[in-house]
Amino acid sequence: MKVIVVGNGGREHTIAWKLAQSNIIEEVICVPGNGGTAFEKKCRNIDFSKCEYLNGITGNDAYIKVAKENNCELAVIGPENPLAEGLADLFWNAGIPTVGPKFQAAQLEASKDLAKGFMHKYNVACAKSKTFTSKEEALIYIKEQGAPIVVKADGLAAGKGVVVAKTLEEAENAVEQLMDGSIAGEAGKKLVIEEYLRGTEISILAAVSVTKEFSEQGKSCIVPFLSARDHKRLFDGAKGPNTGGMGAIAPVDDATPAIISQFEKNILEPTLKGLESENYDYRGFIFFGLMLTEDGPKCLEYNVRLGDPETQAVLPLMDFDFASLCKSITDGSLKDFKLEWKKGYQVAPVAVSGGYPKSYKKGYNIIINEEKVNESNAKVFIAGAMENRRSQSPDDTKLVTSGGRVLACSAYGTTFDEAWKNAYEAMSGIKFNDMFYRKDIGLPGAAESN
Ligand code: AMP
Ligand code: GLY
Fold this sequence. Notes:
Blueprint: E1 2-7, H1 10-20, E2 27-32, H2 35-38, E3 43-45, H3 59-69, E4 72-77, H4 80-84, H5 87-93, E5 98-99, H6 103-110, H7 112-121, E6 129-132, H8 135-145, E7 149-153, E8 162-165, H9 168-179, E9 191-195, E10 200-210, H10 212-216, E11 221-230, E12 233-235, E13 239-242, E14 247-250, H11 257-277, E15 282-293, E16 296-303, H12 310-314, H13 322-331, E17 345-353, E18 367-368, H14 370-375, E19 378-382, E20 385-387, E21 399-401, E22 405-413, H15 416-427, E23 430-431, E24 435-437
Parallel strand pairs: 1-2, 1-4, 2-3, 4-5
Antiparallel strand pairs: 6-9, 7-8, 7-9, 10-11, 10-15, 11-14, 12-13, 14-17, 15-16, 17-22, 17-24, 18-23, 19-22, 20-21
Adenosine monophosphate is lined by residues 127, 150, 152, 162, 164, 194-197, 201, 289, 300-301, 448.
């Protein structure tokens, strides 16, 4: 069958690559895809502006038209924005089974107030919190609670909406700036103010298959993947500004079996119960952002999709057919699906354009020593790079940089040390102007903790 993958990041390259490995997949249509999917076996990028058959159809309707035109029988939606806008509903209405929650369930990421209300209602282990639309009331509450305290914009804010305030002054400034729209625009008009949690963070990605009908038949479930860890700060030692993610590892040794079983009991199971009770149609992936505290794991957030760059570390360890997993999510057979994992580790540092997360230049040639990458058991997942369409000179490469996070070099090893050495050996064979990457992904002291 043919499958359409929506998105253009490193996560979507990884999803497309893994789908393409399946015998049941004939072609992966990537919309719009990126420089990675452009050269991936069985994958084809589609650029809306070049589709004559779209005839003026734009926005989310264009995805449906492209999927229909190409006879796609499955859709996988990568990023949160189209999910929050209801793209999954449109695909289902058009008769295309889709991996990605429908509109209502997708608001669990789009509104932190809704997510926290859900967690409190169903007793999901999480930080105490309160929601405010009045600045004055928010400021009074902060004074009562004291610092440290966490101030969060309610809406989607591309990582800019959370302020972990160490002092009362910082918290008060955050309230002022979020509510006047200067940090996160409209997203900050409503605020969630949250208890500060001490601990180390991990991410657990999972497959979800919940509908009213499945629940009545006892088929609704959430099936967790291996644990993973993102490294969000720009510099080694978890220093510097926040980024979209500078690298990931999987699995994480400090997510012990005891912690995983606490997570299942206190977070996963109540979440499943909540999704069922709310009658959500949630067939897709979920990302649990967790803080490992002294009192056990607490849920910091839900993302209604796979994490980026965690996906680049987790999917290569899958020893099962990913396309069949996706199908099982949509048709109610996920509960019977057997997930097997490669024994070992995956380490995936990310290379970024110099200047990121502030301004950076684009259009640089990317040199990749394929032999070194292959010998290191690594795979390069492209994020911010595109096919080079300039007139080819002998020095031109097939890819040029086009974004902040350019690529992840994800390597396997039977031990963590081996995976780590492989990843950095492969990375040493990749070059572009002003390239920058962290040298400590997965090492002690690299993880965010407080
Ligand atoms: P979120 O988007 O809600 O996951 O928040 C972004 C980041 O802020 C998280 O990855 C944590 O590093 C930090 N954070 C969020 N909530 C808390 C909390 N309650 N206590 C401490 N740190 C937090
Ligand atoms: N890695 C965190 C995220 O995808 O938002």
